[in-house]
Amino acid sequence: MLRRRPFGHxxxxxxxxxxxxxPASQLLLTAMFTDLHxxxxxxxxxxxxxxxxxxxxxxxYGIDLGGRxxxxxxxxxxxxxxxPDEVLGRNMHYLMHHSHADSRLMPVHDCRIFRAFQQGQGVxxxxxxxxxxxxxxxxxxYASYPIRDGGKVxxxxxxxxxxxxxxxxxxxxxxxxxxxxxxxxxxTADLSAANEQLRQSHVALQRLSSHxxxxxxxxxxxxxxxxxxxLGASLTALQLELNWLQRRLASEPPLQTKLDGMVEITQxxxxxVRRILTDLRPGVLDHLGLWAALEWxxxxxxxRSALQCRYDCAAALxxxxxxxxxxxxxxxxxxxxxxxxxxxxxxxxxxxxxxAEAQDLLIAIRDDGRGMQVPAQPSSFGLLGMRERxxxxxxxxxxxxxxxxxxxxxxxxxxxxxLQEVPA
Length: 424
Hints:
This protein is α+β, with helices and mostly antiparallel strands. The protein has 12 helices and 11 strands. It has helices at 24-38, 43-54, 74-80, 84-87, 92-96, 112-118, 164-248, 253-280, 283-288, 290-305, 324-345, 381-392; strands at residues 3-4, 59-64, 69-72, 123-131, 137-149, 152-162, 308-313, 349-357, 360-367, 395-401, 407-413. It is rod-shaped and about 155 Å long. The two termini are 95 Å apart. Residues 3-41 have low confidence and may be disordered.
């Protein structure tokens, strides 16, 4: 049952028995509740109001302008550890809202409940505590709204509820969230560190690959020079000696036949040496540059494979030099592409073209062979080697192919023509 402050038991309908010490606002509310108590036709309405307040499931009380309780429901009083009769007439701030959660005193002028009628505005709070009779606090959610008599504020009505369980669950959820965030941050940091280590390892491998290619080319050049200077000279001298013997033994047919066979073997050996020298280090690349070397490579490929080959390079590009290491890398890429065409493409024609696009140099090799399904991550050493060489130049190697539609390999070297006088 709703507990109201007692107003007396006189027979007057409009004039309750009160003490002179009560303020005017409380006299007004007292008279109002007394009239409702005395008027029989309001009895049913008042009973419904009492049932409603007792069935809300949360504490409800009213205060006058002095902060004294003028009514409170049973649930609200029990939540504070009192009976309703013990609460009526007491200052609610000093009873239940006197301190912060850390036990620091809360001045009444900082009380947001009182601001409801002091400022004439409602307020809803869920970040404070209320205090019980036994001195313990509980986290509470409360709302305070002014009571008006016409246009005049005469008090406030407050609803409150114990949300300790909810706050505990929220804190547990927040702690779990913070722990998850911490773990995610730690995991992210670990992954970042691992990625950085992987990146550094990748950079180191690229540098190692570039260094190995350089060392390999130097070794090839050294071996080619030794073969040319020693074996080539020896074979040339041997051929000259055999030619001399042929002239001296012209009258000896059996010996002449034998010498002819030896000359042929010597010539074959010299041809093999020239091919080996070309594979190790094409002399035309060192003496005439990249473009002449590519044209010679395509002509040699046509003579050995019987494929129709076409070379297309703008005259302006042929004046550009890329530097010895870059030209060797481009030549090796073209050499590897033509080797793959010969082994796998089953093509009838090949075209090698070079042109400028802005400051980029594009070199493309296209065949009309059977094509292939380009793997997302190449696994063959040939493709890997070409891509590593292109990456070492700061370029990009792209392979476009479909089964039955031929293959196009494009090498793009970015900004290599920036310092060259080459029209785009």
